[in-house]
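Protein Record: Sequence and Backbone Structure Tokens
======================================================

Structure line: whole-number tokens from a learned vocabulary of local backbone shapes, matched to residues.

Purpose: to set a sequence beside its fold so the mapping can be learned.

___
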Amino acid sequence: MSLGVRRAEDVDELPAVGGNYRIRLAGADTGGRLAVVELLLDPGALGASPHVHHGHEEDFVVLEGEITFDVGHTEVVGAGGSVAVPRGTAHGFRNATARKARCLMVFTPAGYEDYFREIGRLVASGHEPTPEELTALRAEFGTSAV
């Protein structure tokens, strides 16, 4: 495997409902080992309603602001904090504050970054996905709603 290098200008910037995504490392860059997606979450925005990933782990590192995580209980995590979500564990998250929040999401193995590409494509076309559409799209990526 060759070294995967992404410079700032190589980052995929994708619109989202309530913020945007930046794919920092994709599976193509890491031989499928992992993907890193930066999430910028607007004040008061829902990042994700409760869901379960069946094929990968998802870990978060909060870089700015605070993010409220629902992981069987509620945890408010500020800048510098992190949350590890094992595969098969229900979780959701939101920005319950009046300030922007920013975090890195690490997916192991890679693949779920393509879910964000699909969301970005829909939002860029002017379509805000409905909860039913999100549930169907998540299912394509081995994820189910709770």
Summary: The first helix runs from residue 27 to 30.
